[in-house]
Specification:
Helix content is 45%, strand content 17%. It is an alpha/beta fold and 296 residues long.
Length: 296
């Protein structure tokens, strides 16, 4: 496309509805999927908590298993000083591993407006940490409606908080991925409504395949156009109420590919088998599926 053709397209691009701004715009460079395997640090929560494993060790695990990216759950960070963050960033870089995301706890459903503002300020601090690590994404939670208030109240608070946080995130080039994590995000229609109302290029869905409480497959499919990151689990909700079934990763990865998803699929392991034996096997499976479907 030459310059004249590009300029001719600009008015049409400007006319795109604002509601589309908060999707991944996956067709910007064509519909072909780009799927990359990653490790969610939460998979090693026991080892990180008891300090038998460090965040630097996660870089080595990624290298040893041929994994491209890390989603660093921050719960066990010793601190957020440069003396911790910069060596970790360097170690990842020189080993060809991308720290593409950090995962934090947030709750935007507090009835106290001052406490909600505190949550936004705290998230801004984590946005700075993500920027220091070179991560372009942060996983956030919405929250639950407190007693005495409606879900509509809680959703309004969450939308307002994310709008304010997204302004700051956009200045740092960091995308906020709201996770389907119960409460006001326990169903695809609810989390999509929140993301559409925030209407920001810097807010999308961190799509956790294992977190819907019922009938996961159609809900995952509805969320895919809004997904900016994803976490794969070994179990998902079945079609029957309270039914949990083994996740068909081939089916899920094919769904992501058909949607044109471009980004990481992070293994978030929560099953009983020790990570030492389970993770290498599961990471090999995930890596193979990413390779298989990235060419579709």
């Amino acid at each position: 496309m030459n310059r004249r053709q590009i300029l001719a397209c600009l008015p049409a691009m400007a006319a795109v509805p604002a509601a589309l701004a908060n999707t991944r715009s996956q067709d910007m460079f064509g519909p072909k999927a780009r799927l990359k395997p990653a490790i969610c640090a939460y998979s090693y929560r026991k080892e990180l908590a008891d300090k038998s494993l460090t965040y630097t060790d996660l870089v080595k695990i990624a290298v040893d298993n041929g994994i491209d990216g890390l989603d660093l759950t921050v719960y066990w960070f010793p601190n957020t000083s440069e003396s911790f963050l910069m060596p970790l960033r360097r170690m990842a870089y020189i080993n060809g591993v991308e720290i593409y995301s950090i995962s934090v706890r947030t709750d935007f459903c507090n009835a106290d407006a001052a406490k909600r503002r505190d949550q936004v300020r705290e998230l801004m601090g984590w946005i700075d940490v993500a920027s220091q690590l070179g991560a372009g994404h942060i996983r956030v939670f919405g929250g639950h409606a407190p007693k005495g208030y409606t879900e509509a109240d809680a959703i309004n608070w969450c939308v307002d908080s994310l709008i304010r946080a997204s302004d700051y995130a956009g200045k740092r080039g960091v995308i906020l991925g709201l996770e389907n994590h119960g409460g006001i995000t326990d169903h695809a229609s609810k989390i999509i409504d929140v993301v559409n109302r925030v209407n920001s290029d810097y807010v999308g869905i961190n799509l956790d395949t294992g977190n819907f409480s019922e009938n996961a497959i159609p809900q995952i499919e509805k969320c895919l156009p809004y997904a900016v990151a994803s976490q794969f689990k070994t179990m998902i909700a079945g079609a029957k109420p309270k039914e949990e079934v083994k996740a068909d990763w081939d089916q899920l990865t094919a769904m992501f590919a058909r949607s044109g998803y471009k980004g990481y699929l992070a293994l978030e392991y929560e099953a009983p088998e020790p990570t030492a034996t389970a993770m290498p096997r599961l990471l090999a499976e995930l890596r193979g599926l990413c390779q298989k479907y990235s060419s579709k």
